[in-house]
Amino acid sequence: MSSPVNTSHSTAAAVSPQDGPSRLGNASSLARRVVAQGRYESVTAIRNGEQLLISLVLPLMALFAVVWSGLMDSAGVRGVDVAVPGVLALAVLSSAFTGQGIATGFDRRYGVLAYLSTTPLGPAGLILGKACAVLAVLLLQVVVIGGIGLALGWQPVWTGVPWAVLFLILGAASFTALGLLIAGTARPEATLALTNLLWVLLGAVGGAVFPVPTTSWFSGVAAFLPSAALGDGLRSAFGTGMPDVGALLVLAGWGILATVGALKWFKWR
Questions:
Q1: Taking Cα atoms as reference points, which of 173, 170, 184 lies closest to residue 263?
Q2: What is the rounded CA–CA span in Å between residue 155 and residue 80?
Q3: Consecutive 10-residue averages of pLDDT for the chain (269 residues)
Q4: What is the separation, in whole angstroms, between the first and last Cα of the chain?
């Protein structure tokens, strides 16, 4: 009769304190830090009157102005059906790009980011935390803007909602990274001026709110702008129920490049 095999040593060797448990602990700890940072950023953004103005009030004003003026009405096309997806794209620019860019720029000036640099959060954790906050604010924006759009007569193709959600998430991630890239490399005053200027340009002529006419000389350039990619993607998803694959690839490309740039060049001080 053979004696029982002692497996304590092999088990201890297979799962050492420096192996699986530490990795799982580090991953869960990072997740908790990101969630905590995201919660803090979300509450700060919602309570901040200036950010709420940028994130919600201005896009709603744009929606009412476009719908009531009839700028997008044409034969066989209801202006509200084009306006609501465009204003949702503008809302993403407001909360993810301008709002987060300005907030991060002045946090950097007043030493908040210098303090965060001493914590295990790191640039990746900061980007993820801010992306979580943007998604929380974006959820509020979609509910309010979408609800008012429906009250104004918007008739989206509901089968395209999953594609629209994908574009919104990808757009939020891309513009958050772009905002942090500017805020982490430029002075706060320059960040304030640049993000506001780009918000106006990308919203008005960059394809976010208004589709760029294919006959325009600018259409070839606009096709590669993240604002046009987001606007066209949302208009296609809500208008036809199908994804604009080209816009999806352009937006994903901007997201990757901006994230890599923010991780590489972001300065805490």
A1: 184
A2: 8
A3: 42 41 56 82 75 82 89 82 94 90 87 76 74 86 94 95 96 92 91 93 91 81 93 96 95 94 85
A4: 71
Helix axes 188-204, 100-109, angle to 10 degrees: 170
Q: How many CA atoms lie within 13 A of 120 on its CB side?
A: 10
Q: Report whether 251 contacts 170 (CB < 8 A).
A: yes
Tokens 């993810």: give the residue. 96
- The pTM for the full model equals 0.83
Return the closest-CA partner of residue 95 out of 49, 39, 141, 163: 141
HEC profile of the chain: CCCCCCCHHHHHHHCCCCCHHHHHHHHHHHHHHHHHHHHHHHHHHHHCHHHHHHHHHHHHHHHHHHHHHCCCCECCECHHHHHHHHHHHHHHHHHHHHHHHHHHHHHHHCCHHHHHCCCCCHHHHHHHHHHHHHHHHHHHHHHHHHHHHHHCCCCCCHHHHHHHHHHHHHHHHHHHHHHHHHHCCCCHHHHHHHHHHHHHHHHHCCCCCCCCCCCCCCHHHHCCCHHHHHHHHHHHHHHHCCCCHHHHHHHHHHHHHHHHHHHHHCCCC
